[in-house]
Write a structure and sequence with these properties.
heterotrimer, A mainly alpha, B mainly alpha, C alpha/beta, A: mainly alpha, MetI-like fold, 11 helices, 0% strand, globular, C: alpha/beta, Rossmann fold, 6-stranded mixed beta sheet, 5-stranded mixed beta sheet, 24% strand
Chain lengths: 254, 255, 267
């Protein structure tokens, strides 16, 4: 019996070996493909001279700043909409009208208003992050066990106390989940903006590599971007399990 | 739609109209430069102009064509591959972990590779859109096929159902909620990638329109384009949810 | 504990057996679930299996269905070994909700069995109507399983099984999830359906009275590993009646015997 771990690695490892052999056999000369060994070498070099690390820093700064800003707006609105149903119903049309606008469509607006650089990217990422966090935190607040609300009334908690002691802790696991999902979106949107037009970060790095006809470096960036996304997601999953354990999955406080 | 729902909808519409009014006031008072923020009146005028002259129709069709093509190809390939992988436990254990690893990868990162292979062309765009739209479909379909109630497979064995019959009469309907939600995500991805590719490669479409308007500081045209993109997003999501409701009628009945 | 050592449950008789277990053992994941079970179900017989939870009665049923293969011994149907499920053996599962297609109506679910048997579309409608009438669901053809009560869903599953025109009906605690009144109604319905169709029935249940009420023969399995511990021949008059049969002194005697067996300490 092959253990599960080995099975999971079999496909990627086999693919890499096959690609390497094939590339060597045909003496690959191409603008778009490079043998895995060359990709690895380019990656090592880019780490060594710091270029890819700086790019990573830039992308992550934009992504996180956008996540925090968009997240704060989305969270505030989401909680308010979850608590005050009147507010929720009145805002329905407005939210449903703005939500479908793809964040990337704002790119030109942000471009002319803010020019190239961090700010424009952060604004677009923030816009993209508002919606998943708003929707999910609204659902998280709305999904709080009604029994808990009754308890808070029986205990005669003040509104502020009710929010602080009952609503936020009860909704917290699912709010964290919302942020975890939004973090993935933030990274994707940041990289996309950089690829489309912004000359900073990992997206710009991969585009530059392509334009310089360096497929090894380009694919190295691609791999690195994937790894960053994977690590980010895994790290957040670990944090989620650590902080909330089963609670994040079940939705009530432990 | 009963009375209460109707009234709330109307009130909500009124609130939205209020926001538009606020936007108009801000534009009139020039609190933000009209170069960046046109009033809704100018955006609307630009929309009408664009459609009358036929320019915007062409751009709209361009974006829709890109989306549709990519989404179609992705749906067929995604469902077929997903069905194959999802229904076989062996394939799942070899392939699923790699797919999970690729899930958080920003799919736009494939764009430079596509450009390297195909240049700044229409084919590049179609490749990117199809490639990007396949992922949500594939992952959702795999999940749907993997989650088929095993008891139903036993019923199928007992009835001596053929392999095709099992796939089309049991696995596919069982996976359809997941597949449909994957399709919805695919549509969103297809729209985004269409816009990005149009911006990058200068292809005919709303993305290109919006970029050109920005470069020439024609803010009214720019906003008209953005609004249209929002409308596309809204209508495609609406269409999907109508289809979902019809096909998934059996879910909402009973408890 | 004379009954505990009895391994075989077969009666001398001129009739051939339809479903036969010959020294059947099944081990799963290192544990022996049932061991050295031999039994003989005659055609048209109503054969009940009872026992405490975990004694392997469901396992025995699944072996008879061909869903499992024995680790030792053979399971035969009409003399031929059961290597895979047969179309003419219908299985009624306990979890009816999971055994019905939620996206098909009642008619659609019954149709599934007819489609699998290759019945032409033109003939299906009439058969579906007849089957739904037989199980008392004539007006519910267009309903989805989720819109039906537990008892109705189980009847629907039975209708689908009858659509297979089965020679044998294997029922795995079919009424276990239902309330007592529904259960009694369905017991009588099953008896009527089976009498009309002459099918052989293997019926697994944890309800001892149900087994005696329904069956021609009842075997009790003792657990860990599952072996036949007792066998009773039920000579109560047919048709059975919920009140009269259950008050019959013979019924009470059999009930007593079965209760004592289940309650008796293991080994």
């Amino acid at each position: 019996m092959i253990p599960e771990r080995a099975k999971a690695l079999l496909l990627p490892v086999a693919a890499l070996v096959v690609l390497e052999l094939w590339a060597c056999a045909i003496h690959l000369q191409s603008d778009s493909l490079a043998p895995p060994s060359a990709i690895a070498a380019a990656l090592v070099e880019a780490v060594h001279d710091g270029s890819i690390l700086i790019a990573t820093r830039d992308t992550l700064i934009s992504a996180f700043a956008g996540l925090l800003i968009g997240g704060a707006i989305g969270l505030a609105f989401g909680i308010a909409l979850g608590i005050f149903h009147i507010f929720d119903r009145l805002m329905e049309v407005t939210i449903e009208a703005i939500r479908p606008i793809p964040s990337i469509a704002l790119l030109p607006i942000a471009l002319i208003a803010l020019g190239f650089g961090y700010r424009m990217e952060i604004v677009i990422v923030a816009f993209a992050c508002i919606w998943p966090i708003l929707i999910l935190s609204r659902a998280a607040v709305g999904g709080i066990e009604p029994r808990l609300i009754e308890v808070s009334r029986a205990l005669r908690l003040s509104p502020a106390d009710r929010v602080r002691k009952i609503i936020i802790p009860a909704a917290l696991p699912r709010i964290f989940l919302a942020f975890r999902l939004a973090a993935g979106i933030a990274l994707i949107v940041a990289v996309t903006v950089e690829i489309a037009i912004n000359p900073i970060g990992l997206g710009a790095g991969i585009m530059t590599a392509q334009q310089a006809l360096r497929p090894d470096l380009m694919l190295a960036y691609l791999l690195w971007i994937g790894a960053v996304g994977y690590l980010l997601n895994t790290g957040l999953v670990v944090a989620q399990n650590h902080l909330f354990g089963r609670a994040a999955l079940v939705g009530d406080p432990a | 739609m009963n009375r209460a729902v109707f009234y709330w909808r109307a009130a909500s519409l009124a609130v939205a109209a209020g926001f538009i009014g606020l936007w108009q006031v801000v534009a009139n008072l020039r609190l933000v430069s009209p170069v960046f923020l046109p009033g809704p009146d100018r955006a609307w005028a630009s929309l009408l102009r664009g459609f009358e002259s036929g320019d915007l129709w062409g751009k709209l069709e361009g974006t829709l064509a890109h989306m549709a093509y990519g989404w179609f190809v992705a749906s067929i390939a995604g469902i077929a591959l997903g069905a194959m992988i999802g229904s076989s436990r062996t394939m799942r254990s070899y392939v699923a972990p790699s797919l999970e690893f690729l899930r958080p990868l920003p799919v736009s990162a494939i764009i430079p590779v596509a450009i390297a292979m195909l240049g700044l062309t229409q084919s590049m765009a179609l490749f990117v859109i199809a490639f990007g739209a396949i992922w949500p479909m594939l992952l959702a379909t795999i999940h749907g096929f993997a989650a088929v109630e095993p008891r139903l497979y036993e019923v199928a064995r007992s009835l001596h159902m053929s392999r095709t019959a099992v796939i089309f009469k049991i696995a596919l309907p069982s996976a359809s909620p997941d597949i449909l939600s994957g399709m919805r995500l695919s549509l969103t991805v297809a729209l985004i990638l269409s816009v990005v590719c149009e911006i990058l490669a200068g292809l005919d479409g709303l993305g290109h329109w919006v970029l050109l308007s920005a470069r020439s500081f024609r803010s009214a045209d720019l906003f008209a384009g953005v609004i249209l993109l929002g409308v596309i997003g809204y209508l495609t999501a609406l269409a999907m949810s109508v289809v979902e409701k019809r096909l998934l009628r059996w879910r909402s009945s009973g408890h | 504990m004379a009954a505990a050592t009895r391994q075989a449950a077969s009666f001398p008789g001129p009739e051939r057996s339809q479903i036969a277990f010959s020294d059947v053992t099944l081990a799963l994941g290192g544990k022996i679930i049932i061991e050295n079970i031999s039994l003989d179900v005659k055609p048209g017989e109503f054969f009940c299996i009872v026992g405490a939870s975990g004694c392997g009665k469901t396992t025995a049923l699944r072996l008879a269905a061909g869903l499992y293969q024995p680790t030792g011994g053979t399971v035969t149907f009409d003399g031929k070994p059961m290597l895979a499920p047969r179309r003419d053996i219908a299985i009624v599962f306990q979890d009816y909700g999971k055994a019905l297609l939620p996206w098909r109506t009642a008619a659609g679910n019954v149709s599934l069995a007819l489609e699998a048997s290759g019945i032409a579309a033109s003939q299906r409608a009439a058969r579906i109507d007849g089957l739904l009438k037989k199980v008392g669901l004539p007006d519910h053809a267009g309903k989805y399983p989720a819109e039906m009560s537990g008892g109705m869903q189980q009847r629907l599953q039975i209708a689908r099984c009858l659509a297979q025109e089965p020679k044998a009906l294997l029922m795995d605690e079919p009424f276990g999830a239902l309330d007592a009144m529904t259960r009694q109604g369905l017991q009588d319905e099953v008896l009527a359906l089976v009498r009309a169709s002459d099918a052989t029935v293997i019926f697994v249940t944890h309800d001892l009275e149900e087994a005696i009420y329904l069956g021609d023969r009842v075997i009790g399995l003792s657990p860990h590993p599952g072996r036949i511990g007792i066998e009773l021949r039920i000579d109560l008059p047919r048709p059975r009646d919920q009140l009269r049969t259950r008050e019959n002194p013979e019924f009470l005697r059999l009930r007593r015997e079965l209760f004592d067996f289940i309650k008796a300490p293991e080994k």
